[in-house]
Amino acid sequence: MGTSEDTSTASPPLTDFEFNMALALCDLSYEKNKTNMTYPGFKKHVLDKYDTMMKELGIDTKTYHQLPYIAYFDNKIRVIVANHGGVAFVCIMETNSLDQHAENLAFHAHPIVPRGHDDAPTMYVNNVTELGLVPLVHAMLRLKQLDKVVLCGHSRGGSVAHVVHYNLITNPNFCFDKNKEITSVAFGSTPFLRSQQPDLKHEHRFLTYVAERDVVPALFSAAVNSKIAAYVKAKHATKIGLVRYLMDFDIAFALERATEVLQGPLGEYLYYGKWTKLSQHHPPRHPGNGISCMQYSQTAIDEPLVWFQSVDYVAALDLDNVIETHSLKNAYKPHMHQAVEVPKPSVNLTLRINRHMTVPAARYLVHPDISPTLLPMLLNKAIAAAFVTKTFGDNEILHKLLEFKASLETYRRVFHERIQDKKSVDERLRDEMDGWNKLESRLKDIKPKEIQDTTPSKQEPSQPPNGSSTTPNTFNDDNITTEMNAMTIFTANMLAENPLESKRNAMGTVARIARAIALGVVGVASFGVALSAQAEAVAGYVELMSLIPAGIAVAEASALVGFVALGAGAAHLAQKGAFAAFANLFSIASGADSATANRVRSELYQESASSYQRQLDVIARAACPSYKKEMDTLALEELLETEATTDKARRNDKKLVARYIDVIRRIVELRRVCDNLVFIVLNGKQGVGKSWFIKAIKGQHGGPRVSTDLPEFGPYTPNGVADPTRSVYLIDLPAGDSLNDKLRLYLQELYGIGTIGINLFEFDVRPQLLTDEMFAMRQMYNGCDHVLVCLNKVMSKGLELKKNHAGSRAQIEGYLNTWRVFFKENNIKRPKYDIMLTDMTGTCEVRPSDDDDDSREFHDRWAQQNIDKLVSNGGSSRDQVIEWIEGKIAAILNRLGS
User: Fold this and answer.
1) Is residue 554 a contact partner of residue 561, using CB atoms and an 8 Å limit?
2) Strand 109-111 vs strand 119-121: parallel, antiparallel, or unpaired?
3) pLDDT confidence bin for 107, thresholds 50/70/90
């Protein structure tokens, strides 16, 4: 349960400064990419707006230079996490996913706390779950020096803020310091709570502010709904989208069921918390003075429903002007308090809390799925696939990758020949291509193995492959290394530079890589870099200390921070070499926390891919007759491949444009061969039965547990049979809970690499608290098309099942449904995720040795009986798992036309 707050001694729920800050953040949350900026350009635009906002609030941004953590989705802001001193703010902007549209706002309610008795509209609960807001705030409240969290939002975002708050104070699994405070602030929001016995202890901290003529907070009022229904009917449904525009509330459906709705669910929602009316009026003019200033006031609404039902309120509603009266900027922002005393907390405290907030934000604020079509993601897959396929005698991807590398190097040589500086082209090219040159050398050193030689660490000691060693096929420093991601991001940034500028600046590339790492990490890992308008030098403050790995010397860490803070960052990076500099910064950013490292990758993948797409657009506009606006990356690449010419290019640009187009053609070829390859990624915590799971898929028996030190790979051979007509490989990712630092680095490098995912949890009769595991799984399989969640080792839990028995079937169905509900509550649901109760071996006992035939026969019979009991009652074994995998492989390859 939440705090045991004593309301007689607690501080005010919201100060005037906090009111202003919440309102300003809500205003900022409406920033959208309306001018077709690149993703990094949009992020910089938002940060500039944030800086302006802080100054307008009266905060000295030269002294308090903490940066917000901002989660984005589809060129919109989703969540802003910020702080000033020991007070943190979480501003929520609603999302609009397809399944939310399918759940009507008021006709479907869902428990706020799983299996609880207090409900909220399903759409609001979905927002809370999808965004990961409850575990985020819960983790923030555990930060020692953070005193208070203010949740805020406008319209539906405000209602979602209230739902998060209510979850935290009523969830029996949560307990936080009684001295910590939570307040939720909603501007122009509907009621959110349906309850027979609402919590009364914390009600005074649920604050809802209502502009005097805003209709949205009154949507659940019968009188207001009647007026809307009459208005829509009178307008012949021309305003049918009125409320849907504001709240995603399906008013067309509401009108069809008006009588039922007005007497039913809508009236059951409580006007919970403290409601306040925001009014504005012109005072009487002073005689002889024609000046009349608007005055603003706040008045407590003791009985909100009575007010919303009142004749005066309903009569004054202007439904022709509803968007204006609900607008945050026009109806709410003018009510910011004037001449507010701005807190001046310790700068060190402010920055310390700001740093520590980023880790839970990176871990729990779920980012959207990353498309495998993003250029860095493609290159990651191509590099890993080149090593994997060459290991087993297939060189097609290897050849395409090296052709891309050669084309890239030729293009960059022409690119650098246009730069007027003292550094030679060869030296500059050597710096940039350092990662690719080393990669090519490692690829040439790979010695192919036979197909039987797959994941031998999973073989029984008594069953070694003929003529093979026991060395597993692993991703390690001899193949992909821990610099693969840095190289692919760096490469995408090279291809994002505009080659058509008449004069190049030598610092451009170095500044670009600094900009890339800065905007990728900013708000993710407390690492901020501000660049000049020309992006020719690094200048501004860099807050790095939370990212410095424990083993790095303090002097070296301070020097790195100092170089960038003094504006000498670009020169320092240039001395180290372009790629080496990027890889170094990327390594530092990735060294703090696995969730942060994955978030950094997610942001940088999107940024570099966005800038790359912009450059494709520039080239295609100049070189392709069929160019059209708003083409995506794949369409632009295909267009450049098929019809690009240099006819319209300036004479001095023709060679450069031709080389760029050749690089794009190599990328298209690389996409085609990689589309025909499927990576099945398998992950699970230590001891969950992963090695036996893999052996069972291959038709092998289990043996003594073998610990995996690095990610392993091998051909996918169901029942031990290889299919030479397709390229399908299994990647065994060791547990993320390992203490092996090198292993964790490789897990990060392989983030998003899979096409199909299989995640193992150890079965239990009911779910445990697996919050971190849920979020880790969603991150791990971010780029996968399909994921199978297996609740494994069912028959090792002492269940008493009878074969094909009604009671046993009900028992298994009950367990499965309980887990399904649990996963759905954590946003693990179809169509991406499927769930099975599995036992791949039927027993946790090791199969007896070859010289004990009687014991082996008994073991095999006992194991098969257990499997038959499970499968006949609705569980799954090896055959069902393989069938699922085969179905997904076929669907993927058929979709791609293979």
Assistant:
1) no
2) antiparallel
3) low
The predicted model scores a pTM of 0.86
Within 10 Å of residue 459's Cβ, how many Cβ atoms? 19
Q: How many other C-beta atoms lie within 10 A of the C-beta of residue 748? A: 19
- pLDDT of 561 above 50: no
Pick from 134, 180, 161: nearest CA to 25: 161
Neighbours of 296 (CB within 10 A): 13
Fold agreement (16-282+293-364, 676-895): yes
Residue 519 · residue 540 · CB < 8 Å: no
Rounded to the nearest 10 degrees, the angle between the axes of helix 375-391 and helix 396-417 is 140
CB 195 within 8 A of CB 166: no
Q: Which fold has domain 16-282+293-364?
A: Rossmann fold (3.40.50)
Do 718 and 697 form a contact (C-beta atoms < 8 A)?
yes
Contact criterion met (CB below 8 Å) for 96 and 76: no
pLDDT, residue 390, reads 97
Strand runs labelled E in 282-331: 295-301
CA count, 13 A, side-chain hemisphere, 207: 24
How deeply is 4 buried, as exposed, middle or buried, from its count of CB atoms within 10 A (0-12, 13-18, 19+)? exposed
Helix (H) or strand (E) run with residue 589 in it:
helix 578-590
Question: Could you tell me the residue ranges of all domains in the chain?
Answer: 16-282+293-364, 375-448+482-673, 676-895
DSSP bridge pairs for 81:
69, 90
User: What is the per-residue pLDDT for 251?
Assistant: 42
Q: What is the pLDDT of residue 140?
A: 96
Query: For the stretch 750-771, what's the b/e string if a residue is b when 16 or more beta carbons lie within 10 angstroms of its beta carbon?
Result: bbbbbbbbbbbbbbeeebeeeb
Annotate 798-826 with three-state secondary structure: CCCCCCCCHHHHHHHHHHHHHHHHHHHHC
Across 65-74, 243-252, 591-600, least confident range: 243-252
Residue 552's CB is within 10 A of a number of other CB atoms, namely 13
pLDDT in tens, 198-248: 999 999 999 999 999 898 898 888 888 778 777 766 664 444 444 444 444
Report d(CA 389, CA 531) in Å as an integer: 42
CATH classification for the domain delimited by 676-895, as one of 3.40.50.300, 3.30.450.20, 3.30.70.120, 3.40.50.510:
3.40.50.300
Measured CA distances, 391 to 450, 473, 752 (Å): 8, 8, 22
Torsion sign across C-alpha atoms 259, 265, 271, 277:
negative
